[in-house]
Design a protein that fits this description.
Elements (H helix, E strand, L loop, with lengths): L2 E3 L11 E2 L11 E9 H10 L13 E3 L3 H4 L11 E9 L3 E3 L22 E4 L12 E4 L5 E7 L2 E3 L13
Parallel strand pairs: 2-3, 6-7
Antiparallel strand pairs: 1-10, 3-5, 4-8, 5-9, 7-8
Length: 169
């Protein structure tokens, strides 16, 4: 039996990119984020770019997190060994914090009919928006996102000694 772990190889951040903790992303800055998906979808994203999800707790957009742990849980219906995490650079633009269920802008943060227009909705950790308690971001415009590389699960204790790897496949 083997265990799966998610680890980043040491690497230098691209110029102008920040890796941040749990505080709200600063408007107009570029951050390192993660997107969990299947290998097939990762290949499509790398070839054609991201597309908005039509559903989600924040409405349409591309769902990401600055927390590798959060991204590595997706897709929920796929075994962990079949998942891939895309490491991406994101210019967050104008950011709103959606810090509670039923927030008045939860589904309308990108719609001018309801007030100021935001490019990214951010759910802080432990705010009651996610079951995991981990932070989540939703980016309206997929053009704000650039794939850096892929992170693959590392298999520990497998009979074959497979240890996984990071990078494009």
């Amino acid at each position: 039996m083997y265990q799966i772990s998610w680890e980043e190889d040491d690497f230098e951040l691209p110029d102008g990119v920040k890796k941040m903790g749990h505080s709200m992303p600063n408007c107009g800055k570029t951050y390192l984020m993660y997107h969990g998906t299947s290998q097939a979808n990762a290949n499509l994203i790398m070839r054609n770019g991201f597309r908005q999800s039509q559903k989600g707790m924040l409405g349409p957009g591309v769902y990401l997190s600055r927390d590798l742990n959060k991204a590595s849980r997706y897709p929920l219906d796929l075994p962990e060994s079949k998942r891939v995490v895309l490491r991406v650079k994101v210019n967050v633009g104008n950011v709103i914090a959606i810090n509670s269920q039923y927030h008045r802008r939860q589904y309308t943060w990108h719609d001018a009919r309801y007030g100021e227009v935001f490019d990214t909705a951010w759910c802080p950790p432990n705010c009651g928006m996610t079951r995991s308690g981990l932070e989540e971001d939703c980016v309206w415009d997929p053009q704000r996102i650039e794939v850096v590389d892929c992170i693959y699960p590392k298999q520990r204790g497998s009979p074959s000694g497979y240890s996984g790897y990071s990078g494009y496949k």
